[in-house]
Amino acid sequence: MARIVPVVLAVAIWVYGIIHCALTSKDAMPGRVPKWGWMALNTLLPVIGAVIWFVALYHAHQEADGRQEQQARPVAPDDDPEFLAHLERENRFREWERRQHAAEKPAKEATPSDEEILRNLERDLRSGDADPEPPANAR
Vertex 104, ends 87 and 93: CA angle to 5°? Predict the structure, then answer.
């Protein structure tokens, strides 16, 4: 039994290496070796070829991940598209608030306050020119 386990393990690694290499696309081949070269290496060197295949594939994925991390990380805040989009949203909102405030301001200035209406009415009553109806712009 102890002699069979290493043989079964070696055959399993060899078959898995061949199948994995066969299912890998040509674009994802590690190194500068074409697909037929990797298949020949896995077939002619049963366990060693599969180990070399997996090690080369691991290193190729590590290099690709390192390149993606370097490209994905912005150097400065003004290079980060998410940050710039957030700033643009804030600027649009502030501009909208400013326009709303500017639109409300003339309306507030045109409407006299309650104190102004009372002062005008008291002045009119003291002068004797009081109208029984309030002014047209009163609330």
Answer: 10
